[in-house]
């Protein structure tokens, strides 16, 4: 069933996010007949554009960034009939009247009250002001019909996130607020719930009795990509760990929800965040490693070190790599380390989660059969490979009993073909139009996640790092390997 009639306002209409992600996603929803029967999209911004110029820019974005290649200009023209550019200076309160006027006009034309969505695809410092002006509009008081979507970063630290939540709560109900974490829209991430809770065979062993450690990697091969203005104020912990990685950790560690009601699922996730053992300042160096890349060679091309990047402070302390060992103090996970890591300019692009199992309780095989013995592992590859693999021991064919670790692999592309998989933003935008907040962050989740990373962030800000400490095209600082090998484990580097 398609969502109800909708008018969608995108603040930052001519910005990068809209061109790369939002419009390609909306256009794909249109092609797949998921857009409402009646919809209208207004890109808002200060730069003047005619609708034609705006459409040309959007088509360019769709051509470059959509998952579907071969963009049909005529078909796009059909979609573009629903899209306009609305010149709006966000600093000028009077301009916001244009929003009310447009909603009224569409309501009149369609003969029904539409849902109204405000998507704030703007720099974080503009969010409070725009939200405040929106909060004053009469139409915002239509609690059931009006929604606001806020992008990451949600706050800069615990305090600012808390303040932003309080500000939003003074104008909108929690049900109206959609805080995006695009990782939650990824097919492979949603499938963690299916794997765990639609099967009887995994959940019984999904706990400290059978699992020895868990690790989550989000490795990127890209560097700063010209985002110094944002990234140098942020760094890997804020950019990736506070949100994406902790959300993955919640998906792996949460208890089974009773239903897929948005609040029920989010209650279970926030329980995990609240159970993460707080890290004491004096322990940060024992459980967390930061890194920053120096100069090097990536894909045959010389690259400058982070501190030499344009727009980055000469002695920048910003980390482009972070690894942390967490513990979750609850019945299911007591004593089990959760190692997480993320970094820019690493050897391979790979986001994956690996659960390593304990040894079999008794080993009757002769010692010489087990030279290549490796523990059981279940690995969920989120991207770019999309698969789930289980490693187990098998007898190598022959007259001796020799055990080998082998993999049983479920591969998405083979099973379904990749073209059918919607992108994260498609799923999330459709959810907003449908009013389903399950895959969005609730206020308490965002704050709990900030609480988890704050002691590390503060300690790192207050101490001098030994940067640069890793070369591009490597697996990050050596200390990050020690963090896990000292405990007798190893990072899973998929090849
Ligand atoms: C964003 C970060 O949230 O996620 C980027 O700001 C990062 O620094 C990106 O590159 C990674 O997203 P994905 O979907 O490419 O893994």
UniProtKB/TrEMBL annotation:
Claim: Oxidoreductase is one of the keywords in the record: yes
Binding-site list for NADP(+): 46, 152
Biological role stated in the UniProt entry: Catalyzes the oxidation of glucose 6-phosphate to 6-phosphogluconolactone.
Residues of the active site: 244 (proton acceptor)
Signal peptide: none
Domain Glucose-6-phosphate dehydrogenase C-terminal: 193-491
UniProt-listed Pfam families: G6PD_C (PF02781), G6PD_N (PF00479)
Listed GO biological process terms: glucose metabolic process; pentose-phosphate shunt, oxidative branch
Record-level GO cellular component terms: cytosol
PROSITE patterns: G6P_DEHYDROGENASE
Top enzyme class: oxidoreductase
GO-annotated molecular function: glucose-6-phosphate dehydrogenase activity; NADP binding
Keywords, alphabetical: Carbohydrate metabolism, Glucose metabolism, NADP, Oxidoreductase
HAMAP family registered for this protein in UniProt: G6PD
Residues that bind substrate: 182, 186, 220, 239, 344, 349
Reactions catalysed according to its record: D-glucose 6-phosphate + NADP(+) = 6-phospho-D-glucono-1,5-lactone + NADPH + H(+)
EC number: 1.1.1.49
Protein's recorded name: Glucose-6-phosphate 1-dehydrogenase
Family of this protein: Belongs to the glucose-6-phosphate dehydrogenase family.
Domain Glucose-6-phosphate dehydrogenase NAD-binding: 10-191
Annotated pathway: Carbohydrate degradation; pentose phosphate pathway; D-ribulose 5-phosphate from D-glucose 6-phosphate (oxidative stage): step 1/3
